[in-house]
C-alpha cells in the first residue's frame, strides 16, 4: 500500500467508534469491472465501518494486483476509494532464445499471468527473469543474460521486451574422481554422458558441454557401476563444480568412498509360490561366491515376474531383501507376492482412427476371457508393431473396479502414414530422368490389405504394376496376393549392352504362417518375354537368341520362406529379417531355368538408442538352366554396383563382361552373371540439426560384392568361370536418406577401395522419385 490519505489517518486516529456509511464510491477504475471492485472491498450502504475494516478493504484491493496506489476519503458519510490502476501489457516480445522454444516460454509466462491483455506485475516478471537465468545455468550457459525492458504505450499500456543472450555452453575441461582405488577414472567415466573437451571422436558430440542434469545422471551411473560390482557400501560423499573466471571452463571433482565388494553367501526364496518352485529357481542364475550385482538382481526380478506372469499372476511383486554380513558377504532373499490369477475382461483399442479394430484384434495373441499372460501381451505388442501402420504401440493392463481377478487391456496406438499418392519427376545417375506416378496403400480402407498401382518411366525403362495383397485371406492368417505387370527395358548406356526387353505377366501367391514371424509363400506367374537385339549385339546375346529364339512364354513357379521381426517400417530401428526363395521356370515353358536367392539383414541398438544403430545385410543368388536350357537366360542375370548394391561403383557395372567380334566398334559391357554376392555393414547415427529421425537417416558404410559365373558361353572371349573371393569389390562412404512426402531421396558419397582396371566408379550417387 503506497498512500493512505491524511483525512483517513485523522479519521483513524480520532474515531474509535464505527460509523454508518451512506454511500461508497470507487474512482479511477478502467480495467477492473466496478462490480468486482465492490465485491473485493465488501462495503454496502448503511453498513457500519471502522479503521480496521477500511484497512482490510485496502489490503484486498492491493491483493488483486491491479493497483499501484490507493487513497481513501470520507466526506459527509460518503466513503471514496481513489485508485491508480497498473498498466496492462499491450505487447510482449521474446528474442534471442534458441535452446528454449518461444512457445514454451510464452506458455510459462501465460501460466504466471503475463500475456497480452493482462495487468503488468513487475514482481512476477522479476521472478520469471530469475527462473530463466537459473534454467540457462542448469544447461551450462553461465554467460547467459536475460534483460527485460519496459516501454510505455498509449491508453495505460506497456510494451514488455525480453531479450535473451544465451551465451556459450561452458566446456568440461577435467573430470576428477577422488577416492577410487579399485577402478581407474577411465573405467568409471566411460559410460558418462559428460566428457572432457576434445575426448570424443564424434565431431557432433555435446558430451563436453556441461549440464547439471547430465552430471546428476552421471553420478547415478557411477553409483550403479559400483553396485554392479558388489560395492554395497559405496557412497558419493560430495561433488564440486568449479568455473573459470570467464565462465567458459568447468572442472568437476567427485569424492567417493568405495568400501569393499560383497560376495553372495546364500540365496533363498520367501513368500507364497503358486507355481512349482523349480520354475522360479530356473530364473535365478546366481550362486554362492558370485560377486553381488544390482543389475543382475534386477534382471532376475524381471524374469521371476515374467514367469509368474505367464501363469496368470500378472501383478506379482518381487522384492530383494539383502542381509549384509560382517565378512563382506551378503544373504539374498527374493520375496514373492503373486496376488490372484488375472483374466482379461475386455481389450480396448484407441488411437486407431483409420485402422479397423478387426485388423488389430487379429494380431492379438492375448484373448478376451482368457488368462492374462505376460508373454502373450508382449507378443501382441510385437505383432502390432510389425504391421508398420503405427509409429507407437502401448499396451497397459487396468484393473476392473470391484474385482481382484480381472483386468482390461488398453491398446493405444499412434497411426502413421501407410500409403502415398506420388506424382514425381526425378533423376538418378543410373536411369537418368524419371517420371513416376503411383498410388500405394498398405492399409487400404483400414482393412490391413495392400493395394498398389505404380507407373514409372525412365530413360531406359518403363514399368506398370497393379498388385493387391490380403494378409488374412483366411482367419488362420493365410495370405493371397495378385499382380499384373508390364516391364519394358531399353538398355543403352556405357555399362550394359544395348538391347530391348519386354515382359508382360500375371501372378498369384498364397502365404502360410508357420510361426509368429515365419511364413512360407507359394506362387505361380505366367510371363511373356520378348527380346529385340541391337544392330551390333554381343557374341553372347546373339548366340542365345540364335539358339533359343527371341520370344518366350514361361510358367514360373516359386516358393519362399521368410522370417521377419523388423520394427520401424520403412526405416527400421530394430530386429531382423531373412528370406530364402526358389523360382523355377517349369517344364513345358519355352525356357527352363531356376534361381535361388537368400537375403538377410539385422539391426542392433547401440547404447539402447533408436538413433544409434549397427546394421548388416547380405544377399546371395544363384541361377542356372536345366533340361534343354543350357544357361540361365542372360536377361535373368544378376548385376552388382550402384545404389542398393556396391556403392562407389557405377550401377550394374561389376562382374563378367560380354564379347564382341573383332570388327565391332563396341567395347565390352557388363552382362551380369548367374552368381551374386553382396554385403553391407553400416553405423547409423543422428545428425544434431535434424529433429525428425523417423524420416531422415544418415550412416557410414562398408560395401562389398561382385557378380560371377560358372557357365561361360562357348563364344565368350572375356569370361572366367568360378567364384574368386579375391575379386570382391569394396567401398566405404557416407549415406543420407530422406523419406520425403513426395518420394524417397537418397545421396551417397562413396570411395571404391580396390577398383581394378576397367571398373567404372562413381564418387557421388543419388536417387530421387524412385524406390531404392
UniProtKB/TrEMBL annotation:
Annotated compartments: Cell outer membrane; Membrane
Gene3D superfamilies: membrane protein fhac (3.10.20.310), membrane protein fhac: a member of the omp85/tpsb transporter family (2.40.160.50)
Domain POTRA: 19-86, 87-167, 170-259, 262-339, 342-416
Coiled coil stretches, renumbered: none
GO biological process: Gram-negative-bacterium-type cell outer membrane assembly; protein insertion into membrane
Leader sequence residues: 1-18
Gene Ontology, cellular component aspect: Bam protein complex
Xref: Pfam families: Omp85, POTRA
Keywords noted in UniProt: Cell outer membrane, Membrane, Repeat, Signal, Transmembrane, Transmembrane beta strand
InterPro entries tied to this protein: Bac_surfAg_D15 (IPR000184), BamA/TamA_POTRA (IPR010827), D15-like (IPR039910), OM_assembly_BamA (IPR023707), POTRA (IPR034746)
Chief place where the protein resides: membrane
Function: Part of the outer membrane protein assembly complex, which is involved in assembly and insertion of beta-barrel proteins into the outer membrane.
Quaternary data: Part of the Bam complex.
Family: Belongs to the BamA family.
Official protein name in the record: Outer membrane protein assembly factor BamA
Species whose genome carries this gene: Marinomonas pollencensis
Gene name of this polypeptide: bamA
Amino acid at each position: 500500500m503506497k498512500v493512505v490519505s491524511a483525512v483517513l489517518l485523522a479519521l483513524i486516529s480520532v474515531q474509535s467508534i464505527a460509523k454508518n456509511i451512506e454511500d461508497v464510491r470507487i474512482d479511477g477504475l478502467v480495467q477492473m469491472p466496478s462490480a468486482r471492485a465492490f465485491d473485493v472491498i465488501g462495503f454496502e450502504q448503511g453498513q457500519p465501518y471502522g479503521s480496521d475494516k477500511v484497512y482490510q478493504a485496502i489490503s484486498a484491493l492491493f491483493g488483486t494486483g491491479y493497483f499501484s496506489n490507493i487513497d481513501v476519503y470520507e466526506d459527509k458519510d460518503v466513503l471514496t476509494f481513489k485508485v491508480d490502476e497498473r498498466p496492462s501489457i499491450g505487447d510482449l516480445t521474446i528474442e534471442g532464445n534458441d535452446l528454449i522454444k518461444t512457445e514454451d516460454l510464452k506458455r510459462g509466462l501465460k501460466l504466471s499471468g503475463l500475456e497480452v491483455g493482462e495487468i503488468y506485475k513487475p514482481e512476477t516478471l522479476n521472478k520469471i527473469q530469475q527462473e530463466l537465468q537459473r534454467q540457462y545455468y542448469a544447461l551450462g550457459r553461465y554467460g547467459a543474460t536475460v534483460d527485460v525492458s519496459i516501454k510505455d504505450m498509449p491508453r495505460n499500456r506497456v510494451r514488455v521486451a525480453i531479450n535473451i543472450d544465451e551465451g556459450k555452453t561452458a566446456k568440461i575441461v577435467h573430470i576428477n574422481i577422488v577416492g577410487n582405488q579399485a577402478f581407474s577414472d577411465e573405467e568409471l567415466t566411460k559410460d558418462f554422458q559428460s566428457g572432457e573437451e576434445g575426448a570424443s571422436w564424434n565431431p557432433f558430440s555435446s558430451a563436453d558441454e556441461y549440464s547439471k542434469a547430465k552430471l546428476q545422471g552421471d553420478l547415478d551411473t557411477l553409483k550403479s557401476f559400483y553396485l554392479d560390482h558388489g560395492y554395497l557400501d559405496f557412497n558419493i560423499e560430495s561433488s564440486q563444480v568449479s568455473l573459470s573466471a570467464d565462465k567458459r571452463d568447468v572442472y568437476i571433482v567427485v569424492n567417493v568412498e568405495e568400501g569393499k565388494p560383497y560376495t553372495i553367501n546364500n540365496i533363498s526364496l520367501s513368500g507364497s509360490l503358486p507355481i512349482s518352485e523349480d520354475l522360479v529357481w530356473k530364473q535365478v542364475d546366481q550362486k554362492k561366491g558370485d560377486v553381488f550385482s544390482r543389475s543382475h538382481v534386477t534382471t532376475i526380478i524381471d524374469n521371476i515376474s515374467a514367469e509368474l506372469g505367464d501363469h496368470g499372476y500378472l501383478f506379482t511383486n518381487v522384492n530383494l531383501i539383502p542381509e549384509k554380513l560382517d565378512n563382506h558377504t551378503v544373504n539374498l532373499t527374493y520375496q514373492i507376492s503373486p496376488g490372484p490369477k488375472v483374466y482379461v475382461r475386455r481389450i480396448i483399442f484407441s488411437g486407431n482412427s483409420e485402422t479397423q479394430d478387426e485388423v488389430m484384434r487379429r494380431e492379438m495373441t492375448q484373448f478376451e476371457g482368457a488368462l492374462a499372460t505376460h508373454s502373450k501381451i508382449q507378443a501382441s505388442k510385437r505383432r502390432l508393431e510389425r504391421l508398420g501402420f503405427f509409429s507407437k504401440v502401448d499396451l497397459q493392463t487396468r484393473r476392473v473396479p470391484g474385482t481382484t481377478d480381472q483386468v482390461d487391456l488398453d491398446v493405444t496406438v499412434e497411426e502413421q502414414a501407410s500409403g502415398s499418392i506420388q506424382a514425381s519427376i526425378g533423376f538418378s545417375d543410373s536411369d537418368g530422368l524419371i517420371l513416376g506416378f503411383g498410388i500405394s496403400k498398405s492399409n487400404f480402407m483400414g482393412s490391413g490389405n495392400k493395394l498398389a498401382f505404380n507407373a514409372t518411366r525412365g530413360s531406359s525403362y518403363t514399368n506398370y504394376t497393379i498388385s493387391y495383397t490380403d494378409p488374412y485371406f483366411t482367419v488362420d492368417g493365410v495370405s493371397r496376393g495378385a499382380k499384373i505387370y508390364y516391364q519394358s527395358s531399353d538398355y543403352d548406356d556405357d555399362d550394359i549392352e544395348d538391347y530391348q526387353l519386354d515382359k508382360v505377366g500375371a501372378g498369384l501367391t498364397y502365404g502360410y504362417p508357420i510361426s509368429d514371424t515365419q511364413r512360407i509363400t507359394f506362387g505361380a506367374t505366367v510371363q511373356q518375354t520378348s527380346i529385340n537385339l541391337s544392330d551390333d549385339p554381343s557374341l553372347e546375346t546373339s548366340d542365345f537368341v540364335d539358339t533359343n529364339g527371341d520370344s518366350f512364354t514361361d510358367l514360373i513357379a516359386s516358393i519362399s520362406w521368410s522370417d521377419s521381426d523388423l520394427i520401424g517400417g520403412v526405416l527400421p530401428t530394430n530386429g531382423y529379417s531373412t528370406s530364402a526363395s526358389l523360382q523355377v521356370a517349369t517344364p513345358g515353358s519355352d525356357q527352363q531355368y531356376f534361381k535361388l536367392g537368400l537375403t538377410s539383414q539385422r539391426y542392433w541398438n547401440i547404447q539402447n538408442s533408436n538413433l544409434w544403430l549397427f546394421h548388416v545385410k547380405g544377399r546371395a543368388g544363384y541361377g542356372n538352366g536345366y533340361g534343354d536350357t543350357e544357361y540361365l537366360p542372360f536377361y535373368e542375370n544378376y548385376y552388382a554396383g550402384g545404389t542398393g548394391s556396391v556403392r562407389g561403383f557405377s550401377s550394374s557395372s561389376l562382374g563378367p563382361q560380354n564379347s564382341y567380334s573383332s570388327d565391332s566398334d563396341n567395347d565390352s559391357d557388363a552382362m551380369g552373371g548367374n552368381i551374386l554376392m553382396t554385403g553391407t555393414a553400416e553405423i547409423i547415427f543422428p545428425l544434431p540439426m535434424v529433429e525428425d529421425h523417423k524420416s531422415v537417416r544418415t550412416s557410414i558404410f562398408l560395401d562389398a560384392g561382385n557378380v560371377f559365373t560358372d557357365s561361360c558361353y562357348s563364344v565368350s572371349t572375356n569370361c572366367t568361370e568360378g567364384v574368386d573371393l579375391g575379386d570382391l569389390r569394396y567401398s566405404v562412404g557416407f549415406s543420407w536418406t530422406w523419406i520425403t512426402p513426395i518420394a524417397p531421396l537418397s545421396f551417397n558419397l562413396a570411395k571404391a577401395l580396390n577398383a581394378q582396371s576397367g571398373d567404372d566408379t562413381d564418387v557421388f550417387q543419388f536417387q530421387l522419385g524412385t524406390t531404392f
